[in-house]
Specification:
- This protein has 112 residues and is mostly beta strands.
- Helices cover 0% and strands 53% of the residues.
- It contains no helices and eleven strands.
- It has strands at 3-7, 10-13, 18-25, 34-39, 46-51, 58-60, 68-73, 78-83, 92-98, 101-102, 106-111.
- The strands form two sheets. Strands 2, 4, 5, 6, 9, 10 and 11 form a seven-stranded mixed β-sheet that branches. A four-stranded antiparallel β-sheet has the order 1-3-8-7, with no helix packed on it.
- A hairpin with a 4-residue loop joins strand 7 (68-73) and strand 8.
- The radius of gyration is 13 Å and the shape is globular.
- The model has no long low-confidence stretch (mean pLDDT 94).
């Protein structure tokens, strides 16, 4: 079973950048694709980005395309989300996902 721990969230001004990390424990980290989701206050959790097992293929929500970059390091069992040109509407708790496992989330707040 995989356990996930996110980090890297914080408060940033609009236009700024943050890099989120998700560290995984367990043996089967490289078996599945991984994803990032976010949940804003009063809204449902939504998809942000996903990356294939090898890291070659990625997919993004339209709202973050061109601003966010997902990557992974299978040797370190870590997935990253580089976020640039942040907007206030990016404010949310960000979660990483691997198969049926979810992290505890990390808060990202973007001030205008």
């Amino acid at each position: 079973q995989v356990q996930l721990v996110e980090s890297g969230g914080g408060l940033v001004q609009a236009g700024g950048s943050l890099r989120l990390s998700c560290a995984a424990s367990g043996r089967t980290f490289s078996t599945y694709m991984m994803g990032w989701f976010r949940e804003a206050p009063g809204k449902e959790r939504e998809f942000v980005a996903a990356i294939s097992r090898s890291g070659v293929n990625t997919v993004y929500a339209d709202s973050v395309k061109g601003r966010f970059t997902i990557s992974r390091d299978n040797a370190k069992k870590t997935v990253f989300l580089q976020m640039s040109s942040l907007k206030p509407e990016d404010t949310a708790v960000y979660y990483c996902n691997y198969a049926t496992a979810w992290g505890q989330g990390t808060q990202v707040t973007v001030s205008s």
